[in-house]
Structures are given as structure tokens and as C-alpha cells.
Amino acid sequence: MLTTKPFSFIRNYKIGTYSLLIFLFFTTISLIGYYTIINEQRDFKLKQLDIVGSLTYQDFRKIIYHNIHSLEGLRDRIVESDGRFQDYIKSDSERIIKQNQSIKFVFFVDSTGIINFVTPLEANRKALNLDISKLIYRYPGWLANSKDTLTNITPWLDLTQSGKAFLVDVPVYYNNTFQGTVSAGMDFKSQFDNISSKQNIFSVLIKDETGKTFYSYNTPNRADFNEKQIFERKLKPFADRVNGAWKFEFMYNSKSELYATPLQNIILALSIFGSLLIGLLGYFFLLGKSQIKKDKLINHKLNALNEELKLERQRAEDASMAKTQFLSHMSHEIRTPLSAILSISEILEGKKLLASEKEFLKLMQNSSRTLLNLVNNILHIDKIESGKMELSEEVFNPFITLKQILEIYSQAAKMKGLEVHSNFNEIKKSKVVTGDVSRTEQIFTNLISNAVKFTNAGFIKVFYEEKEVAGQLYINFDVTDTGIGIDPSQKEAIFERFKQLDFGITKKHQGSGLGLAITKMLIDFMQGNIKVESKLGKGTTFKVSLQFPIVAKEDRIENNRKYRSLSHLNVLIVDDNMLNCRILEKILSKKNIKPDIAKDGDAALLECLSRQYDLIFMDVHMPGRDGFEIVQYLRKIGNKAIILGFSADATREAVERGIKSGMNDYLTKPIEQETLFTILGRYFL
Known about the structure:
Layout (H helix, E strand, L loop, with lengths): L4 H76 L8 H11 L3 E8 L4 E5 L19 H9 L4 E2 L3 E2 L5 E11 L2 E10 L2 H8 L5 E6 L5 E5 L13 E5 L10 E7 L9 H40 L4 H44 L5 H31 L8 E3 L1 H18 L3 E4 L10 E3 L1 H17 L5 E11 L2 E10 L23 H4 L6 H11 L3 E7 L3 E11 L3 H10 L8 E4 L3 H11 L7 E3 L2 H10 L4 E5 L7 H10 L5 E6 L4 H10 L3 E4 L4 H12 L1
Parallel strand pairs: 12-14, 18-19, 18-20, 20-21, 21-22
Antiparallel strand pairs: 1-2, 1-6, 3-5, 4-5, 5-6, 7-8, 7-10, 9-10, 11-13, 14-15, 15-17, 16-17
Helix pairs in contact: 1-2, 1-4, 1-5, 5-6, 6-7, 7-11, 8-9, 9-11
InterPro entries: 2C_system_His_kinase, CHASE_dom, CheY-like_superfamily, HATPase_C_sf, HATPase_dom, His_kinase_dom, HisK_dim/P_dom, HisK_dim/P_sf
Protein name: histidine kinase
GO molecular function, one term: ATP binding
């Protein structure tokens, strides 16, 4: 048997090499296809930008020319009639205003610079009889262009009567004498908007000759684009003049239009993951095939060694079992480098970076968190389906739990301009039960966060009621929103894993499509019920029913003993992430602890100098001085508080550095409640 080991090593090495080549082959194909599609997509969109930009530019120029020519037509009728047509200037002016949306008012300036006519009158009464010769910014240009018999257009101006507009002056000459100008105030926004709205994925920005922006559509952010990604032209109000040109810029509404969509990135990630699975399947297939050959050889040559044969069979069974456990183990292993990526990104946030580097850093953080959430959700589903998940028995109040979760998400809802309603004020008493509080919190959280996520206007409403029947508490929990709604044909599909609705949500909202699937599984596992009522475009209501055993008085006493008050402790939380602070604050409230919060290291030092703390939670990575430096300084000045470091960085080096700096213990995010209470018991109970 000893002589077969070198051959076994060589055989396994070859199998591993073949499997790696299979993985690299399919990964290379995925990457080539991905970048080919992205480059072709970007080239196509840039060509589309040039075509649509050119057409929009031509349409805008036609609008400008048409409005100016209409005003010049009024001048021509006055000149051709030697001034007699001026008797009809009011009716003719009203006609061209009605025919040209961009002409807001028409007025006549006589040769001395006095405005002696304006229509419509009421809105522009302040301009009537105005002497423009007293306006330094207006009169010299008006007079110079009039002497040259040139139609003139001013820059974008603040008007005397109110508002802003371009003032267009058309000189009037008859009987060989300058009579004044037929002028108009023009604002092209309504006509430009009519054209821009037909290409709603693009943005438009136009500046006059002084650089002042007078028209924009879709709030363009020019800094997001380079010169090749912007269609730019000089827009001349008068085709025969070099000076006075406006700057026309046409670009996509968002820079993300030129890059890969979230769906394409997910497909790439799934393709690489699929390549890994194919490589591993190939490895196990070749390994199994090799093992069969080896078993046959052993059976053929060593029939007498029955015990050895049993051992080899056991090894084959272990390999088969490893196949079924592979996905679960690999999901755990993937989380390790992801945590490192998130930790590094937190460190980089405190550095001085270029704007483009900050953008890429943000993309890296969002992508890492999305993938980490996907892995966690897959683990969660795998645990439920494999039967490894068990419900814990804890004492808690479902109503208070729901109320606290709604308070957390109310802030996000209000930031989106949503109203938050509930019937909580109507509930005077609520029961305490035994059950799995973390699973119940997850159900509440998933449904409320979904309501906030998919609602852009209107309100979020939460309804809660409970009934006691034979020692059991039956709770009904409804979440109603005025969001996008669900098509009736999709009601069952929303509870499927990796499933989101196919009418545009995947392009507007992030998510793996596992939240509702996990919620449904948890409710079924807890022997509850969930229903959904919805109208497409009108909103959605989720109705959940659960039941729990009501807590007896002696159970409540035991629970109070487990979570007895630590309100006498002075506690400080140091973290620049307010969400982490709120979560930790909520956990500590079960010990009746009301902590102070410091958003960075400098603020923590000020708090510690002004107050004596018994317990300090110290985040490691913060802007400015990090947690290690702050702890070293506190120990140097004789601070005796219990200091618990906590961070997403779970490396051995980080833990050792934390202990060496003076921390009493080191926790990794997210902090488990039971772990935290155990540690508190070690120091304070």
C-alpha cells in the first residue's frame, strides 16, 4: 500500500489540474462574453447619443429660428406698410404669441429708448413706459445693433416686471429713419421640454454666451462624464453670425447608462460561480472515477484484505457526502474574504481619495454587501431546507418588538418623503410570550423594509392586533404600502427564491430576491400564515398570522433574572456608523442600559475626559484616529473602563492588536446578542 501513495498524489494532482483548467476555461469565456457585450453596448449607446443629440440639436435650433423669424415677420409688415401696420401691432402681437409658445410678451421700444407698447399688459405693466436708456446693461447693445440693422438677442436676463427671459430686438426702419425696435421676451423651456421628454433617458444643458445656464432637463451632472461621452455643439441664435453662440450639451441622464447593469453584473457573478461548480463537479467526477478504478484494482489484487476494502468504501461514502455539503461549506468560506474586502473599504474611507476613487470604493462596498447578503440568505435557506434550523425559546413582547423595528425604518421612510401610520396608540396592553424572537424580528423587518424599499410616494401603514385563546396568543400583523404593487399573476411568484417581478423592478431596486422567500419559509416553519393583497401601481398589503404560548408569571421572573438591569453602568458606544450604534443600543436596552454615543475617536476622548465610564464599545476603523490609537491613549492616561473592541475585521492580527492596545475583549460584527450578554456577565454580573 505504501508504494501506491506517490501514484495517488500524482493522480490527485492531475485531477486538480484538470478541474482548475475547466474552471479557468469557463471563467475566461464568461469574462470575454461579459466585456464584449459591455463594450458593444457602450459603443452602441455612444452612437445613439450622437444621433439623438444631433436630432435634438436641430429641433432646438429650428424652434429658436422660428420664434425669431415670427418676430421679424411683424417688423416686415410694419416696414412694408411705411408704419401704417403699426396700428395693428396689438392684434398681430397677440396672434404670434398664441402661435409661438416661446414668445411670452411683445413690446415696442421707440427710437429714444422708451417702451410705449407691451402685450399682454397686466403681467408686464411695470415694463410699460420704461426708459431703457438708463439701463447700462441693456441700452448700449440695443442701440449698437439697431444702428447696424441687426436683430439682437440679449443674454439670459432678470426682467423688470419679474421672471427671466431672452430679449430679442428687431430694428424697424422706414422713411429712411430708425423708428425703434419690435422686441419680445422669449423663454424656450416649454418647447424644449416637449422635445426632451421624448428622450427621457438623456439630459440636456444649455448655457448662453456668458456661461449662464438657462435650460436643463433631467438635472444633468456633467462632472460624471468625460468629453467623449457628451454630445456638444455651439447653438447659434443667428446662423450668419460668429459671436453670441450658446453652448449645447447632450448626455445620458446617468453615467450608469454607459456601463453594465446590475443584472449583467449578477449574471457575470453567477457565471463565474457556475464555472466554479462545473470545475468542482469535474473534480469530484474524476476523483470518483479514479476511486472506482482504485477500488477495482484493490479488489482484484487484495481480496484477502477485507478491512482495507471497508476503509476505502467508507472514504468513497465520505466523498459522496462531501458533495452534498459543498455548497453550504463554500458559502461560509466565501464570507471570509468578503469581510476582509468590507474592512479594507472602511479603512480607505478615511483616506484622501479622488472623486472617481471614492465612487469606485462605494461601488466595491455596495457590491460586497450585496454578495454577502446573498450568501447569508442562501445559507439561511439551506439551513431551513436541511432541517438544521431550530426555533429558540425566549421571552419577549411581539408588540414592543414590532414597534421598535418600525421606529428604525421610519427614518428611512421619512427621508423618502413617506408618511408612516400605525394603530399602536390604540393598543393599551400587550402580552409577553415565549418564542424565537430573532426569527420574529426577521419576519417583521423583511416586510417593513420591503414596503419602504418599493414605495416612492404615499404612505406605509402597519396594523397589529392580538387575541388570547386557551393560553395561546394569536397575533395578526399587516403591512400596507402605496408602492408599485404586484400583478395578480405574480402573487405566488414573489415567494420564490431569486425571484423578482419582471416589469422593471430589477432595474430600479437592488436585492437578491430571497427576502420574501425566507419570510415565507420562516412563517411556515413557525406554523403561521401569510397572505398578500395587491393592485398593480396601487400598493400592496401583506397579512401575517402567528401564534405563541403566553408566558406564565414564573417564566417572566426567570426572564428578568436572565436580563436583570445593568442601568447603573455608564456606557459609551464609539462608532461612525449610526446604524451600528442603533442596533447595539437596542440590544443594550434589554439590560436597561442607556449608552452615550460618540461618532469618532476625537469625540470619544472628549466624552471620556468629561465623564467616568464603566464600559466602552470601541469601533476599530474610524475616520481620523482609529480605535487602537484611542484605546492606547485612554490606557496611558489611566482609564480603567472595560473596553470591548468591535469590528468586521476578524483577522487574528486585528484581534491580537486590539488586546495588545489595551482592549479587554474583541467582538466581530454583527454582534450576537447572547454572545454579548455572556461577555457582559463575565465582567459585571
